[in-house]
Amino acid sequence: MTLPLGISFQGAARTVTGSRHLVRFGPRSWLFDCGIYQGHREEADRVNRAFAFAPAELEAVVLSHAHLDHSGNLPTLVRQGFPGAIHLTPATADLARPLLADSAFLMERDLEHVNRRGQAKKQPPRKPLYRPADVLPTLERFETHGYREPWPLAEGVEVEFWDAGHILGSAVTTFEFRSGGRTLRLGMTGDLGRYRRPILRDPDVPAGVDVLVLESTYGDRLHPPEEETVRELQETVTRTLGRGGRLIVPSFAVGRTQELVATLHDLIERRAIPDVPIFVDSPLARVATGVYRQHPECFDAETHDAFVNHGGAPFGFARLRYVSSAEESKALNEREEPCIIIAGSGMCEGGRVLHHLRYGLGEPRNTVLFVGYQAEGTLGRRLRDGAEVVNIFGEPARRLCEVAALDGFSAHADQAEILDWVGRLDPAPRRIFLVHGEVGPAETLAGLLRERVGAEVTIPAPGEEAALWS
Ligand SMILES: [Zn+2]
Questions:
Q1: Residues of the chain with CATH 3.40.50.10890
Q2: pLDDT digit string (tens) for 128-170?
Q3: CA of 391 to the centre of ligand 1 (A)
Q4: Strand order in the sheet with 151-154
Q5: Ligand 1 centre and the CA of 65: distance in Å?
Q6: Pick from 18, 296, 309, 373: CA 20 to 30 A from residue 362's CA?
């Protein structure tokens, strides 16, 4: 008898946030990713607290990578009685520890503000999704597995991680199910990375996937060529430093900061930009950069060679000056010499970058450089859209500095890169489910995949279930 096998898409279905997919095999079930849903406060709170299954009955979680939209709701799951292990790569484990701790800390602090405001309006206090104390029991569940080292998840189920090339430790995962003399291989991309990027290896191609769950964030878009992005970065840095200004880069702590630093380091080595100090003013980015250093096994050949054989700091991490205390951070603003400051948060919604913006926006010599996506409604988006007056810490600030943006630093494969990667799967998957994308990009990609791969392509609705044996 063949056990029933199915998947239900409980998050990141027709959207890019809150990745969560439930795999059922006979009486057992596992969750693939348990990301936090980011959106308007009330809706997000509801989505994040409510699981459409009993966490106590779940056997295990398999995690694709450490980004919070894939890992950030794990403490809620543990709080609600999930008893099992969380399987992940060693580098993902090391990145997830500080990220989850930071997430719990920010949630608590954010809620203090909300409750203080609510108190004035006599509203009942809200409770955080989870607290810092919930993070430790979550971390204790971690069980690590290297790339290309298959392990048995349960009887008749074998799992394997493959390089995804997205951030340190990120994995494409395959599940091989065996029942009643039949075999099915299910591939889950998590977030698919890119080819020829600094530091990490290119996305790996797993063998023989029958059914593929594929991300589609940039299913309708192409990233600018790398040379163009590097040239624009070089020009922006040169222009800013040339007029004696500072470059302020709001940046995400994990992935983006390390790639940007590697690229700046390379430009300095080639004498394409002046050798000025690079300050990293983000405690989380400092920790994350440390984790990158601890995992040379994830590096591409070039970075690995430079790291292991040539002095240990090839991608510019030795060049960085870390800013520890808030006092040091403020003192940075007294500096007269040109410099580069990388600070969180990436969309300017909080963090130390706000101090640098408050001080730096009014100086025409400076540049604020965006290297990541700026969501609607954020301060980063308003600045990127050219606002001349913005509110910082509740006070209006006039912008006289330059604002620039580079789109080429994305850690997600674009349309061509997704098609290229799927095209390398041999044999081609017969069925593809598109997740982690808005409907528009997913539909464009679905059309191209039907045409080129000949697979049956579905864009599942939230909560939709599918049986997997054909
Ligand atoms: Zn990601």
A1: 226-405
A2: 899 999 999 999 999 999 999 999 999 999 999 999 999 999 9
A3: 30
A4: 151-154, 157-163, 171-179, 182-188, 211-215, 431-435, 456-458
A5: 7
A6: 373
Boundaries of CATH 3.60.15.10 in the chain? Answer: 5-221+411-467
- How many whole angstroms from 179 Cα to the centroid of ligand 1? 33
Residue 335 CA to ligand 1 center (angstroms) comes to 35
Ion ligand 1: residue ranges with CB closer than 5 A: 67, 191
The CATH classification number of 5-221+411-467 equals 3.60.15.10
In the reported structure, the alpha carbon of residue 166 is separated from the centroid of ligand 1 by a whole-number distance in angstroms of 7
Ligand 1 centroid to 288 CA: how many Å? Answer: 14
- Per-residue pLDDT of 246-280, as tens digits, reads 999 999 888 888 889 889 988 998 999 999 999 99
C-alpha of residue 219 to centroid of ligand 1, in Å: 15
Q: Which residues pair with 70 in a beta bridge?
A: none
CA of 61 to the centre of ligand 1 (A): 17
CATH (residue range 226-405): 3.40.50.10890
